[in-house]
């Protein structure tokens, strides 16, 4: 994973997008963000969010997060945790 993309993507989400997209209807969905423009797509499916954004912005550098959670997916027996806001 490119740490520059992850740092920029997470910072963009926290500073500009979280307060806009973190609504009850979006909690648990995926946000795909173009870190170059700040444009984004939201979907329940990671692939669908990314594909829609790439249709609009073919040159996009994508970063994704699960809205309201600390990770997109849990591995093994782990569980996702809601982020306290």
Describe the secondary-structure layout.
Elements: H1 3-21, E1 30-34, E2 40-43, H2 46-56, E3 62-66
Antiparallel strand pairs: 1-2, 1-3
Can you describe what's shown?
With about 80 residues, this protein is α+β, with helices and mostly antiparallel strands. It is built from 2 helices and 3 strands. It has a 3-stranded antiparallel sheet.
Give the N-terminus to C-terminus distance in angstroms. 26 Å
SSE-based structural type: alpha+beta
3D shape:
globular
Beta-strand percentage range: 15-25%
Biggest pleated sheet: 3 strands, antiparallel
Number of strands: 3
- The H-and-E topology, N to C, reads as HEEHE
Q: Spans of 5+ residues with little confidence (pLDDT < 50)?
A: none
The pLDDT mean sits at 87
Q: In percent, how helical is the residue content?
A: 25-40%
Number of helices: 2
Strand order of the largest sheet: 2-1-3
**Radius of gyration over all CA atoms, rounded:** 12 Å
Summed up:
This protein is 35% helix and 16% strand. It has 85 residues and is α+β, with helices and mostly antiparallel strands.
